[in-house]
Amino acid sequence: MKNNTMINEFILLGLTNTWELEIFFFVIFFLAYISILAGNCLIILMVTFDSHLHLTPMYFLLANLSFLDIILSTVTLPKMITDFFKERKTISFWGCMAQIFLAHLLGGSEIVLLIVMAVDRYVAICKPLHYMTVMNHRLLVGSVLLSWTVGFVHSMSQMAFMVSLPFCGPNVIDDVFCDLPLVLKLACTDTYVQELLLVVFSMLLALIPFILLLLSYIVVLVTVWHCSPSGLSKALSTLSAHFTVVTLFFGSLILIYAWPVSIYSLDKFLSVFSSVITPLLNPIIYSLRNQEMKAAMLRLRSRHICSRPNF
After folding, report:
1. Burial 182-221 (b: 16+ CB within 10 A, else e)
2. Helix, strand, coil distribution of the chain in percent, nearest 5
3. 243 is a domain residue
4. Is 45 part of a structural domain of the chain?
5. Radius of gyration over alpha carbons of the chain, in Å?
6. How many helices (H) and strands (E) does the chain have?
7. CATH code (residue 298)
8. Which of 48, 87, 131, 273 has the smallest number of Cβ neighbours within 10 A?
């Protein structure tokens, strides 16, 4: 590896070179990161300590999704925030490789978890009498372990051909953090095969599951409409939150990794979107629009008030 690699750091261009805008972005992203941690930690606490939510398969999966979002945003956001105060934004070679590895590990895991959540919604709507039997504890735990396994295999498959490439300069990345397509272009060799494999792997892991998920939503809605037209609005309400998260998450991944035409300004926006906006929207979509989560918050609040000693 040392024989092939002549550079020991990469330079990140970030979002802007204007000091006033960097201060503005610092405030925005700092508040966003605090909100991501607070919102997703709240979901995990609600699911862990509320007995009703803890025993419901959907919320078990939602807590794991929040855990992934916390780690995924922590991989990129803290460094992005501190870089706003640096004139020269750099990251070490192995720090860059670690960012890429963790981003693909967590992203691959989240893809599988979102698919399992879609299956959960399908069973809940189309097979309500068998819901707790099908979505049992063993299946849920196995699904979470499977998501981490798929994420690890996907990440290792990306890194296998990445770390063997020679990097001798240039070392400038026009983004806010290390991303695989941009780093590939900096290799001192022809990377056509690697870029092609990246698109193929991304289509297999992101584009195809996204299409299948959209088809599953259509099947669910058509099934509900045939069985009970009056229940269509309820099914739409149930699926809308999950559909929003899936579209935002998969859409950004497809445009970054599987789309053949690369537009740097759009890629930079999508990089920020996937690492900031999506983890921020998840607790908002699943909590503020969810009556059971609101009820759990009220129960926890009343329990805390009632348990407070009187003086």
Report:
1. bbbebbeeebeebbeebbebbbebbbebbeebeebbeebe
2. 75, 5, 20
3. yes
4. yes
5. 21
6. 13, 3
7. 1.20.1070.10
8. 87
11's CB contacts (< 8 A; 6+ apart) are 88, 89, 90, 171, 172, 173
Residue type for 56, please?
Answer: T
Residue 143 is assigned to a structural domain of this protein: yes
Domain extent at residue 206: 9-306
Tokens of 29: 């992203």
DSSP 28-83: HHHHHHHHHHHHHHHHHHHHHH-HHHHT-HHHHHHHHHHHHHHHHHHHHHHHHHHH
Total domains in the fold of the chain:
1
The residue written with tokens 């935002």 in the block is: 248
Tokens matching residue 30: 């700092």
Domain assignment present for residue 2? The answer is no
Give the distance, in angstroms, between the CA of residue 105 and the centroid of all CA atoms in the same chain: 10
Residue 103 DSSP SS3? helix
Burial of 154 (C-beta count, 10 Å sphere; 0-12/13-18/19+):
buried
